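User: Can you help me understand a structure? I only have the sequence.
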Amino acid sequence: MFDKPDDQAGQPAPLPPDGIARGRIDNLDDGDAFIFHAVPGYLYAFRPAADSPVSPLLRVEDENGMPLVSRLIPLPQWTFTLTSFSSILWSPTQEGTYRLGVADDPDNFYGQPRPIGEYHITVDAVPFPSTPDTSAPLITPGESPVPNPSFANPQWFQFRAVQGALYSFSTSNHLRDHQLIQIISPDGAELADNNHGPFSSFDWLARSSGPFYIHVPSVDDTPYTLIMTRCLNDQPNGPEDVALPAHIHGSIDYNTRFVPSDQDVFRFHAVADRAYVVVDEDDDTSVFLNLLDQDHKPLLDDTDYNWGGATRWVAPYTGDYYLSISGHAFMRYHFTGPYSVFLAEAPPEEQVDEPVILKSGEKITGQMHYRFDSHEFRFKITQRQTYRFSGQLAPGA
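Assistant: Let's start by predicting it. Here is the structure, written out as tokens:
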């Protein structure tokens, strides 16, 4: 039996040959650590044994004590990183010495006292497959029950990904620590997993269309359900060309904290020294507009945009430009849905950004060309008196 820090002066104990870390948590401040050797190509499982009197939280760390498995919990104003779990499935990227932390929950996210008493933690390892199981069942977005999981024989699925689509993966809510979900390419490369993403699920953005595989090791034989959802992208093939003037319609299909969110890009031609306007035409949307040059660098600062109005800008050169449209994201609010944006060259009378001189008794006619269009007038006051301004719309306007 190994116990830290009382009888080991704060030093980690070596993992016993039988692969069971035994010890005791003596008080609320006690926490143990064991060192072990791990190599790539193997999948390791850490969990309390069936006969363990208490079940402390676990951490996998490098030899310096830095956590290697983490999941993110989005809170209203920040994101909390969770590094301690009831069980862990993990595969190293390089051979070396690692640490298993027992009752190691430095942030105490759960707000619960550490369990005091003896523990038995089992550490198992199985070879990681070099290629996916091509006979795995083909699934579509939805729920896929797994009634007989096994750590020694992990479950495989395959699915047909669509380029630009966002996929989300999770398992039954009460078993979030029991499964490792990995996205595997046809050549066996791991593309993503849930050891470095949101706690309840993780998102994966398909960069290409084609077959991909889901590898789901489980720490025990408790039945679970794999849940897969998909959000298709209405602009999966890069920038879309538009001719001015243009009423641009599209949708923000997904908007998350942890992967690149949906961003629609439109390419258009503009002439040097000519003025242009861009307007969000829908009051019910919450989109961010960003004008980019031919190198995809921003043309304007955030303060140059007239949010809730029309933004006017002058093209610095003749050539291609880009309009990027994405959803606003603030705390837990992430806009998704349809949008409508107007992009055009400013009309002749608005090419010069100077107010029109207005004289007393003079009538001026003009036209509103687009939503939030506005005209400025300048007039001179020669003496203190009451002034009246009046105007009217054309019939039918």
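Now, to help you interpret it: The chain has no helices and 31 strands. The longest strand covers residues 117-127. Let me know which part you'd like to focus on.
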